[in-house]
């Protein structure tokens, strides 16, 4: 079996012709929690993308086939797992190949958008499912929006999303959201940059706050 080595995301584009191949026999391609080092173009076979429930059973989210690409998204680590159904062969590309892949493959663009939406919903459930103060939850949302912007080629420090949408997303009333944003601004983590926009002054500080859980 050919092993796909992690590559520097900042490295130059590697063509499909030059990309190393990994052969899988009912084996895992990547697991939830693993850092994303590659995207994977399926040459032959079928890859199942799935989540593992609390009872250990699997819920298949999609099947990807020859010609499809899997493994992308805006979060740094995989939130779902993927494995071959029978025998499959995949070509391993560095993360820097994403833009080129999306430009030449309309289906990849569609599947990329679906992957982003799944990860965003995963992040939403994660935020709502933990015992966090409203300010921590707002910080977590801003971090997720920042990463989504970066993956889509926009300024990761500028958030233009409507605050009313954010309040609905977090299931907060508008007053609680406004108070949280004021706290973040007073601690110099964010600032207003337009009538409805925000600028992240300290992304690392926001991420630290986002990961805090009430004791």
Briefly, what is this?
The chain is α+β, with helices and mostly antiparallel strands and 215 residues long. It has 2 domains: 21-105, Sandwich (Jelly Rolls), CATH 2.60.120.10; 130-210, Arc Repressor Mutant, subunit A (Orthogonal Bundle), CATH 1.10.10.
Structure description:
- The protein has 215 residues and is of the alpha+beta class.
- It folds into two domains: 21-105, Jelly Rolls; 130-210, Orthogonal Bundle (Arc Repressor Mutant, subunit A), CATH 1.10.10.10.
- Helix content is 36%, strand content 24%.
- The protein contains six helices and eleven strands.
- It has helices at residues 98-104, 106-128, 134-151, 163-170, 174-186, 203-210; strands at 21-25, 28-30, 38-44, 46-52, 58-65, 69-70, 81-84, 87-94, 158-159, 190-192, 198-200.
- It has a four-stranded antiparallel beta sheet. It has a four-stranded antiparallel beta sheet with strand order 2-7-4-5, with no helix packed on it. Strands 9-11-10 form a three-stranded antiparallel beta sheet.
- Strand 10 (190-192) and strand 11 (198-200) form a beta hairpin.
- 30% of the residues are buried.
Please state the second-level CATH architecture of the largest domain.
Sandwich
Low-pLDDT segments: 1-13
Number of H- or I-type helical stretches: 6
Sum up the overall morphology in one term: elongated
The count of β-strands is: 11
User: Helix content range of the residues, please?
Assistant: 25-40%
Radius of gyration: 19 Å
The major sheet is characterized as: 4 strands, antiparallel
Helix and strand sequence: EEEEEEEEHHHEHHEEH
